[in-house]
Amino acid sequence: MGSSGTRYGSITQFFHWCTAILVLVAFVYGPGGPEQRVYSSAHQIDRPLHETLGLCVLALTVIRLLWRMIDTRPEPFPVSRWMGIVATAIQSMLFLLLLALPLTAIGGAWLEGHPLTLIAGRAVPPIFAPSHDVGAALASVHKWLGDTIMWLAGFHALAALYHHIVLKDDVLITMLPRWIPVRRARSR
């Protein structure tokens, strides 16, 4: 369940892949655009799904970060200094975005005077006094962060494939469940 010196454990892998799927689906179902479009009747189905998934991402990320503090991690693979710096920076940015995206969405919606609309007809009313300009600014930041996380996640995935195909190390294998049949690139 926990991670070892050579691979991430099943709990960490679950957090990783579940987060990836939630973010991708939330991105696809994000209504995007100006407030008039986002809160229009045309988005009465996808907005609650998007907002519910966003709250799931936030909760999962908090739990994941707490787990990360107590779980061991695999030994780092020998890479050049610049690769290590870039990998650490991208992982840090991804975690920051996983927290900032839901928080900017919640703040933007509430400050624009809209409740969070969740699936099953639930709504969480605003707890802030409306400030439309600040809410609109947060909504714009949220959209930009959403695009940014997709680019960074894509780069993250390409880097894992680069490690597996070009560098022929097992960076990719460390995050894959054991039941996925992938040939090890080579042993450490």
TrEMBL record:
GO molecular function: electron transfer activity; heme binding; metal ion binding
GO CC annotation: plasma membrane
Annotated Cytochrome b561 bacterial/Ni-hydrogenase domain residues: 7-177
Chain segments annotated as transmembrane: 14-32, 52-70, 82-111, 148-167
UniProt GO BP: respiratory electron transport chain
Cofactor: heme b
Chief location of this protein within or outside the cell: membrane
Subcellular location: Cell membrane
Membrane topology: Multi-pass membrane protein
Keywords noted in UniProt: Cell membrane, Electron transport, Heme, Iron, Membrane, Metal-binding, Transmembrane, Transmembrane helix, Transport
Keyword tRNA processing assigned: no
SUPFAM superfamilies linked to this entry: Transmembrane di-heme cytochromes
Record bears the keyword ATP-binding: no
PANTHER family given in the database record: CYTOCHROME B561, CYTOCHROME B561 HOMOLOG 2
Family of this protein: Belongs to the cytochrome b561 family.
Name the record gives this protein: Cytochrome b561
Species annotation: Paraburkholderia diazotrophica
Lineage: Bacteria, Pseudomonadati, Pseudomonadota, Betaproteobacteria, Burkholderiales
